[in-house]
Design brief:
This protein has 193 residues and is α+β, with helices and mostly antiparallel strands. It has six helices and eight strands, in the order H-H-H-E-E-E-E-E-H-E-H-E-E-H. About 7% of the residues have low confidence.
Amino acid sequence: MKKKRHEKIVEFIEKFDIETQEELARRLKEAGFNVTQTTISRDIRELKLSKVPVKGAIANNYMKNPLGKWAIELKAEHKLIGDIHFVKISEKNQSAEIGYVLNQNYWNQGLLTEALKVLTEFSFEQFALKKLELLIDKENPASKKVALKSGYQMVKKFKGSNQYSAKIRNFEQYEQRKNDYEIYRKKSEIGEI
């Protein structure tokens, strides 16, 4: 029964925009499953499912393994406008590199900054990571702005090969550690940032 319930949950989240656990429970009951809030919470945890809201957009993550890719959707239009993802993750170091891309028509609206803030919080709070990194092409000032607005700090500059063109480029590495995040979050809450 549990396996069938899990399969139905995955089917529902792929088919519908499930906003709450209550909505998921209602749909499961309509499908003939006898569930409680506790059952739903346990199933979500066991399936490693999460939904991360972003104002004006929504980043959905339905993960089956530690590496995740979240779609950034313009909620009002149900339109995919970008993604934010773990490029690589180190369980040993409890760290991850984050990458992101956003359709140019939606730049300078704060959507990517908000998505990065949500994934940063999620990474520290839910995945118990200790450090997050962003590798940004020096010629991409918009991405540097997103990193800085999200509490990341530039820690080093280096030359490297662009993953798409294989050309040697100048990069900057931005980083946020969990303790820095907690300080940044507290300052944000009291309006210092």
